[in-house]
Ankyrin
Amino acid sequence: MSGLKTGEQKQAAMSRDRSALKSLFESASNNNVPGCMKAIHPYVNLETSTFEALTQFKDGRERTVLHFAAQNWAKDVVVWIKELIEQEKVKKEDKDRFVNGKDEKGITPLMCLCMNLPPPSVPATSLPFLLTTLLSLSASIPLPCNSGATSLHYASGSGLLQAVQLLLTSPSSKSTLHSLSEAGTPLHWASGSPHPDAPGIVKLLLEADPDTANAKDRNGLPPLITAAAGGLDGVASELVGGGADVGVLLGGGISVAHIAADNGMVGTLKAMAKIETGRKAMMVVNDDGETPAELAAGQEYRECVRVILEATGEGEGWEVKYGELKAKSDGRVRSKPEEAEGGKKKKGGDEGEEEEVVWEEEVKAVEEWRKAVESKGEVTDSDKEEARAAKEMGNKEFGAGKYSEAAVHYTRAISLDPTDPTYYSNRCACYLKQKSPLLALPDAAVVRAARPEWNKGHHRLATARMALGRYQAAAEAAWEGLKEEAGNQDLKDIMQKAVKKGREENKKMGK
């Protein structure tokens, strides 16, 4: 019976601990200091101080009460903890261990504060006070989490302008400006953020260290490409003005000017027009024979066309030229893919089977994806969980019709776990919704290469090729998908439409 009693006592103690843990963290999240004190009161005695009792509590993800308080901008609770540390004269090593304690992902309380926008009931003006309080407790700015991100990364990506300003006043923040996380430097994070304050944050980061303007992420991409691909005009404009290289070329001969023109980024083009390399980029012809001005005209971005033509010395009578470019874009006659300069052939699986046309940018995209997977190495469980969380955020934005914002989250997921083709597929869908098939095509190629048996890849590739007027190649991609799933009506529709359009093109050419 005594053994049973001991077991019952242990079970009761565990139940009490779970109840106290829940009460403590809920109180901390709700900025309820009396609730926190009540939750830990049974654990405080002559041998255990209030601070020591607090440090004993961690949830299943290794988060402490300070993590919860910081995450929820609980000003009163943070002040209470600071006063406890001072009143109980906590040793420096014990204080530092608690204040800079990491959860299972390596996230510290300071990072929790910097990665979250304020709850509805908390005024944004609380941020400077909270941040200053944590820093006064020796919260570390350069300390990285498991993915390599620091507090400055999170503040930059969350659009917390005040936090970035305050963090940059600390000498210790200087070393973090070049810190490379899975998704790049703090400038990369800010450059991919759709937050209204993102341009201001980019400006602050560039002022702190102009050399970060052309830093590469682990996929070899600079911040400007991140911003341009997301259609973030204000951010990209700041980057161009801050010294970002506008002469960089992507696969398929795509320049920054092509991306900006295709996304209607007038501010970015105006900033580029002030720089010689920017004006040269506006004259680049991609592998499909298209100029940035033609892409802009095809999307009916009149102001973009005007800016480009004036910058390249063709501004006189630009409205007439706009009409010509629009007509050229609308009625562009492409030769068959196998005869086009940018096309390559890939042998079919069976003897005598027709060879499928594969385009240069598709090949390059798959090669770069394989390098990214190899460079990443093992994808940890923590990375996978973070990637899934980013995907969920992207799905939410996509469902709300915010395709640029969704693409940013999917890009984040890709950087964490490049082995999962669903993230590329989702980002591809964003670009297609934005009518940016030049950006969608590489992602579609990766999806099919990563998971050939998944019809989503064939569908994405066929759709992107179709949007680019590569009708034979679109039909071939749809046909490959139908081999996997003969009854797929969407693929049948794409193939029939592609074949019809291809015949119309051939008829125009007299073939």
Q: What stands out?
A: The beta strands are 249-250, 254-255, 343-346, 356-359. The radius of gyration is 27 Å. The chain has four domains: 15-139, 141-225, 246-332, 346-508. The longest strand covers residues 343-346.
